[in-house]
Amino acid sequence: MKFGVVIFPGSNCDYDTYYVLKDVFGQETSFLWHKEHDLKGVDCVILPGGFSYGDYLRSGAIAKFSPLMKEVIEFASKGGLVLGICNGFQILTELGLLPGAMLRNKNLKFLCQFVTLRLENDRTPFTHKGKKGNVLRIPIAHYEGNYFAPPEIIKELETNNQVVFRYSDAQGRVKEEANINGSLGSIAGLTNRKGNVMGMMPHPERASEALLGSQDGRLVFQSIIESKNI
Amino acid sequence: MIDKKILEEHNLTSEEYEKIVELIGREPNTTELGIFSLMWSEHCSYKSSKVHLKALPTTGKNVIQGPGENAGIIDIGEGLAVVFKIESHNHPSFIEPFQGAATGVGGILRDIFTMGARPIALLDSLRFGPLANSKNKAIMEGVVSGISSYGNAIGVPTVGGDVYFNGCYSLNPLVNVFCVGIVEKEKIFYARAEGEGNPVLYVGAKTGRDGIHGATMASAEFGEDLEEKRPNVQVGDPFMEKLLVEACLEVMAKKLIVGIQDMGAAGLTCSTSEMAAKSGTGIEIDLDLVPQREEGMTPHEIMLSESQERMLIVAKKEKVKEVQQIFAKWDLDAVHVGQVTKGGMIRVKANGQTVVDLPVEAIIDLCPVYERELKRPSYLESAHKSEPIPLTNDYNEALQKLLSSATLASKEWVYRQYDHMVQTNTCLLPGADASVLRIKDKKKALAITLDGNSLYSYLEPREGGKIAVAEACRNLACVGAKPVGVTNCLNFGNPEKPEIMWQFKEVVQGIAEACQAFDIPITGGNVSFYNETEGAPIYPTPVIGVVGILEDVSKAVSPGFKQEGDTIILIGENRDDLGASEYLKSVLNKEKGLPPQIDLEEEIRSQEFCLEAISLGIIRSAHDVSEGGLAFCVAECCFLNEQKFGCQLEPRDELRTDALLFGETQSRIVVSTQSQNVQELLDLAKKKKVKASIIGRTGGKNLVIRHLEKEVVDIPLEEVRQLWRGTLPEVFKIK
Q1: In chain A, is it the N or the C terminus that has fewer CB atoms within a 10 Å radius of its CB?
Q2: Which candidate from B329, B429, B438 shows the least CB-CB separation from A211?
Q3: Domains: count for chain A
């Protein structure tokens, strides 16, 4: 499996993601520079976390104009795997590869902490190594992660089983107190209709080594690595 | 004509002016006067503190760079070095909390990457007035958001620090920002302007009118004209700085440059003169070439601007194109504005005219040094006078009051606004005694802590200085790390007052004594004087930052209890030390008494014991006993265990119960261990000549403390934990 991690000006989880793929999972991994038009033949493109272009406007609103995004859209339309983490998720919504948008967290503060998530869909290339109902402990770190979409879109997401992760309590119960940022439907991660593009606010690359307190994020990377088998 | 009024505006005395005239052999023009005003300011020149700072030990076999550069550097082996420094941004943070704190973060980051190091962590020491006052609340909220906005965006984790509250900070909040980076020893860069004819490049953001006279502002007391000073605060742009980090590290890695210096306080003036001074050269620049954000700026304004996110680079002659290409890749300016010259002069041109022509030596080296008058303050007499402390009969209530006081309450509300995990090196989450950061692909890790109890320093400055160092080292010992280097931020009132200068001298002596005892060097730091508004000074506030090494990151220990049924052991001795305690302050409303006295030999033995026990793997948790005493320490060990169990304690000391529970005797550590390791631990203590006593057992739903045959504390853990966690969120709740 060949991975490409996109660097936008202001990306700051680019090296973290690269390190996990390359050094923890031993996968062939390259950086992709946002100004170029070359995906370097990768099998999976990752849009990492950070503050692309400072996020002074709406998160991801400028990154979508980066030259490389043309290739990313084409790649996705042909079924290539694209994962957006945090700012990457925000960029995917701006690009229109995923529906909806992010509002500010309900408490109007940046939030960095471990949260628990319930796995809702184990039939995606990003999660097939897990089981529906699994509870994962993975950190979040964002100011704008309060997922919003019009009711008809939310309904469509639910009908098509596009919701992959929801914020839950440690027992996997989805309830308002566990909905840390106020997202509609407690949505923490979702895919497009075809299932080859996923966005998630929590950071699996921060939960892939025992030393950092959780390895639950490995599920996502391991699933992608073994996705050719599904 | 330069008259008294102009001098006053520039914060220079008439004696200083006469010296300037004598040094340069003529009257300076106003731009030149502005340069002296900045470079001879207390903030840039250390003219009042220099004579005392000499007492600090600054050398050691692992010191690669001591004080005098942008940051200190310590060799940590395996070809790596750590670069670290602490700095204050107190005055700007009072005037404009958000931007003041944000640009403080930006500035300290530049100090670190200027040396070729990638910044890997930030910590902050914050001091505010009581939160019952809405102005203090607004300042704290602004400062925390400012730090969060800058650090999070740039992708350097804010992993720890401390926050204290005291009335003396109401009009003088303190924002001390610490940064640490890692560099390969062979790739360190310095602020040098070497090689006559080498091009001088201006890189980063454009120059605007912001921050003019910032350093001068930080070198005077505030009066009622505070609001007028707001334009002196700069505005931060973390995105610009992120680009700058990447571009600078790239040109450094490719060895395209000779030297580099950030433009922080005193901007272009400071960077040109300091770089030239360090190399015995001169610099010539043309202001018409400097990228400017607004039209019509005078040479005076351009030279004195403190616009953020700018650096000055001396490049290799033949590499200018390559440097510019790398900056262009990151969409940044890199403009050739001048060159290095022979002869030690700073020459600045504008519109074809020479507007500055000054010897570097006069600006930097020949600044006056003051040995100011010292006087022991009279308040000490009455503060030390012993008076009876009434015994309470409700220790449950006292403990609850203590752990819901702003200083001791959980700081989760603060640190969860900081991205403390980016870069994926954070092994212990904030709240532990020290932050632990792994070094990727290495067995060893870094541990870092900040510490400084100003109430101790107020009531006995020398002891306060000593304890600040000792406690910071103890924090490191609790996670399993040995200290390797120290940086200090010394926050004081107006040094022209003999009492303040006496406090300063005493604190510095105390710090020096402790550093010598621990055999650790101070590699730099920062002095912030004039922290007084309308004549009221802050308590003397030394903040000590210590960096340490854990030989094996997998052995890092955290403060929370780990399992029910473990034995709780106290290292050290409980004495009758209620003076200057948080208990007296928060529960009895008294900021009085003598702070605990520290025996540095005893302290070192305790720490060495703790380190050895951790390396042998025979303790499961360790937490130092500090503000709030034994009872608060043990409560925190319970709060920080995820299984939410309590403990039962029964210390056997013949002491007043309040002193036993809340006294702040130094050199104590609470550890927990499995029963099969208890004997080994006690034997080790004996061997190390350390007092160790079994004081209780973990488990149960309550926090129970028995003393002198009586149950003095018995409270449901979950209840007090909510209190401890809920205090700050309640204060800042959106109503």
Answers
A1: C
A2: B438
A3: 1
